[in-house]
Amino acid sequence: MTGAKRKKRSVLWGKLHTPHREDIKQWCKRRLPILEWAPQYNLKENLLPDTVSGIMLAVQQVAQGLSFAMLSSVHPVFGLYGSLFPAIIYAIFGMGRHVATGTFALTSLISANAVERLVPQSSRNLTTQSNSSVLGLSEFELQRIGVAAAVSFLGGVIQLVMFVLQLGSATFLLTEPVISAMTTGAATHVVTSQVKYLLGIKMPYISGPLGFFYIYAYVFENIKSVQLEALLLSLLSIIVLVLVKELNEQFKRKIKVVLPVDLVLIIAASFACYCTNMENTYGLEVVGHIPNGIPPPRAPPMNILSAVLTEAFGVALVGYVASLALAQGSAKKFKYSVDDNQEFLAHGLSNVIPSFLFCIPSAAAMGRTAGLYSTGAKTQVACLISCIFVLIVIYAIGPLLYWLPMCVLASIIVVGLKGMLIQFRDLKKYWNVDKIDWGIWISTYIFTICFAANVGLLFGVICTIAIVLGRFPRAKTLSITDMKEMELKVKTEMHDSTENWPPSKRTNVKVFPGSLKTGSNVRSLSVTPRRMETSQQIKIISINNPLVFLNAKKFSADLMKIILKESDSSQPLDDVSKCEQNTLLSSLSNGNCNEEASQPCSSEKCSLVLNCSGLTFFDYTGVSTLVELYLDCKSRSVDVFLANCTASLIKAMTYYGDLDTEKPIFFDSVPAAISIIQSNKNLSKASDHSEV
């Protein structure tokens, strides 16, 4: 008995604690995404493309690391460290499998404000003679990287606080037009900051409100001091980069490995500069000495955290927003999910930990991420492989970059920002989809170039919320009475349309209210044909609210919940529950429960009719959500039809998405859509019989 009791207790103990272990396991996988995909990594299929992508990415990381370090007003070697450590940390904690984290132009530009304010160039003469024991660099350079590291540390702490507060759920406030305008404006700032290198002009550091215009005013005032050699070399570099990258993009399907034009240009320019001694002969500015190795960790100066609070907030918000947009785009492209809160954790740690290793603020970059797409990367292994090559550069190849001209490096940066700069083309799309979003884009862009990226982002969010709140009071929604009238109309017109059909083809219509919580923005009813050779269920879902960025995400989730619930539910119900859920409005049933009509069919095909009579206004996010839902349902073999759409909605959806033009999807009324669905079904059956 004692042994049996002990055995029983051990079983109970195991039952009590097994779920606890499973919870811990799931928590670890959720917070360490590498544990989710690494055990499933296919060496045979993924290692080769990841290796090729990693090599190409390493070239970009090195070039951008050197450039963005100069953009951040610190020594170039610290950009190499910023290309190494954040990428490793994000590969462990990040969920974007095709996101390349490292140095970032926008965060470097923001941190440069703090560096130039706290350690200006005028203080260089005071410390230039005293060298430190860290890589032989001067105290001046260490003071500067100390400020940049402090910005990175505090920015990462802010991101971690946002993770703890679960503020990732508030990212719906960041609409696509606002993010596009902010990143385009910030890219314009970065190009402006590189003008002095492209033209070879000695220029003091200019920042602050309207600094963008002051820089160009200074350039035009000193246009005679432009170095012709630097200008010609910059133009030649930009032409070569653009042409070769366009050719790589055009023929990437025919060639297995694209030409690493960035690497070739760096080697060729460094060799030419060394052979012709351009630094001394023409006064061309070069990168200079790159020390070997990685110094021991050192904490950033905590006594200046209060002085860099503004820049830290800018780094935290701008870096996260730009990185999240890339992660979500990657997830949408390759069919996986991204947790917004987990991205706060990943980028927070990618800023906090490297700040102890002399790193500047980091984030994901569009150019590097697009490079991973084009070279066929599969996972974050590509980023880890790139870190190996960056490490080789730090310990072995770094000193050979001494002769790299700064104008060539600036050209690489400008061409790398092409993806952000061509977002100007989105203006035509916003104009055709929603002119208010077009106005928000323009105003956000203007605020960004006049002030800063974080100011433009804040203005865009506030402006978007204010406009939506102003439009909502004028919006009209469907009432319960309207829904009943619509249901009665469906009943009447469906009955009239089926009077001339043979008895075997008449349809029973069942209508039931959607099982959504109060306040949801969709309401559903279902129309199911009587049991025939092939059954077809028609779901009618009415949109009762405007569809904007505030409710687009919930609308998408609610709608997919209805579709998946109905398509997956094949368990038989008892007669009482059947009668409660399905009220047959057909004249043949007279409200009685029809068991034959409510039984599931294994070959059932679903059609979805969206009644848009209550969709009184929309924005770009709402239109994109509708189009994505249409394409998602189409991939699931669910036919989608839209009824009672306004002319502006039809125009916006047609312009935005790749909709099916072979058959109509927009109808004047719900009964018209249902009639077309039934007609298509009958034609399909007739063609099947003719083939037999």
UniProtKB/TrEMBL annotation:
The chain crosses the membrane at residues 74-93, 145-165, 203-220, 226-245, 257-277, 304-327, 379-397, 402-422, 442-469. It comes from the Eukaryota. GO terms for cellular component: apical plasma membrane; basolateral plasma membrane; lateral plasma membrane; recycling endosome membrane. It catalyses: sulfate(in) = sulfate(out); D-gluconate(in) = D-gluconate(out); chloride(in) = chloride(out); thiocyanate(in) = thiocyanate(out). It is found in: Apical cell membrane; Basolateral cell membrane; Lateral cell membrane; Recycling endosome membrane. Residues 528-677 form the STAS domain. GO terms for molecular function: chloride channel activity; chloride:bicarbonate antiporter activity. Keywords: Anion exchange, Cell membrane, Endosome, Ion transport, Membrane, Transmembrane, Transmembrane helix, Transport. InterPro entries: SLC26A/SulP_dom, SLC26A/SulP_fam, STAS_dom, STAS_dom_sf. GO terms for biological process: carboxylic acid transmembrane transport; iodide transport; oxalate transport; sulfate transmembrane transport. It is a multi-pass membrane protein. Gene3D superfamilies: STAS domain. Belongs to the SLC26A/SulP transporter (TC 2.A.53) family. This is Anion exchange transporter. It comes from Mus caroli (Ryukyu mouse).
